[in-house]
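Database export, one record per block. Field names are fixed; values are copied verbatim from the stored entry.
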Amino acid sequence: MMNVAQLMVESFQRHGVTDIFGQSLPTAFFLAAEKAGMRQIAYRTENAGGAMADAYARVSQRIALVGAQNGPAATLLVAPLAEAMKASSPVIAIVQEVPVAQRDRNAFQEFDHVGLFSACTKWIKQLDDPTRINEYIDLAVTIATTGRPGPVVLLVPRDVLLMEVAQHDTTPRTASLGRFPLDRTRPAHSGVVLAANALTQAKHPLIVAGGGVHLSGASGALTRLQELSGIPVATTNMGKGSVSELHELSIGVVGNAFGKQAPNYLARSLVTEADVVLFIGTRTNENGTDAWTLFPSNATYIHLDVDGIEVGRNYQSIRLVGDALLGIEDLIDELAARDLTMREQSRRAAVSQIRLAKEAAKERSSRLRSDSASALLTPQHVMAVVDQHMSAGDIAVADASYSSIWMTNFLTAKSVGQRFISPRGLAGLGWGLPMAMGAQTAQSDKRVVCVSGDGGFGHVWAEMESAVRNNHPVISIVLNNSIFGFQKHAELSAFAMSTSAIEISPVDHTAIALAVGAQARRVSTVAELELALTQAFAMREFFLIEVMTDPDAYPPIAAWDEHPPVATA
């Protein structure tokens, strides 16, 4: 005989689960998990725990588990589960419910969790029948990993967790379903032929790779398509790393931060003048398309995505509904049998233009790194130095807002499939550090570097203690400019003034880090930053580097080229 908690643990282990993000609740479940050899990764708030699980799933290609108490703890999972829903991350939340006998009686912290999670999950199930635990967990895992991946919530009453159940009373299950994509589907062959025809005949084709390329594990195939076709590849924020940005046909990240000061701006016409655009694994959302103004209205569009609802949502397209990896492989097969002479001609022109853009960016970066006499560092300074220290095997993570733009625009994807993680589903502020911890848990042999602004970092100071306690050797870079930068500059651009909530009181983040037992340094020059990074990269401990930066610095938001964020006199 075993109880329901033990049965759940056994079932999740069958699906390959080794780590669970939690804070001891539901207690019966976590006690059983730790006894069975699973590792509990502690968090300080459920909000952060959900973000950890999200990043863990993205990096590991496996389901991620997070646990929480009912009531207020459960409500704090809504935001990270909403991010996971938009970002297509298979997170499974185990939420404790009030005992069955106390249901609908205003029990302590009782809440309508089904209503609470209905908009931010693929499926919610209350587990009341001990004999059906195995089949419901298999169903939860299947729903989370099949089709477009996404979050699932299992609600387990406290008394049900302790109910004993005989093995012969349960439905026997042996399948292991915890990796994704679980079921790969091919797009229709007729659509692949139409797409190949359009790409073969195009004069100025373009491929735009989104986060679905990473979810499908299709980076290697995309690189083969890039090389065979000679078509330049741009990526969205979430697609960064789908191809190496050192490749001569890689444009880099495009979208709303593709303004005149963007490092790849000189390649912009390859995007704005494309006649055939192939979207792969992208929602064609506002930021990725610069509010749907970046790509030409008269282009022919092809859209490959596992979610048929997203295909053609914003750009009428040749529909390729299916797995990104299989779809790319089918396109490669079609193109390999065709005359690609036209592609060779356009390839030479694209390579030349991309080379000019990269040379200009390299010169600018070199100038910034040597500018050690600068009175106040800009984030561009910081990223130029960090980029020199990071290797092709490192994982970069960024918080929302400006931090994501600094990472995606000014750090280089040096290898095919390198991961750059950020909360771009809903772009919730404060999730950078916990996402870095989740990524570090998923791949403990990797170095993880996290970029946050002081505004967002204020949401998660407490998780530094969790990082120290969990032995997460994350290098956390906090850009301290004492303002909510994106908000201030957006207000200045739109209204030429900003509200009183923008300024932040001076905070010594280094002191907070030292107080929880972390390594930490505060820096204000290039030389000090170089020294701190050298020290941090040589260690395997959580290390905070607080960089005092210029509050007037802002990234190359295209909309601000004509309306710069400047206050009126």
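Remark 1: The CA atoms of residues 11 and 134 lie 6 Å apart.
Remark 2: The chain has 23 helices and 20 strands.
End of record.
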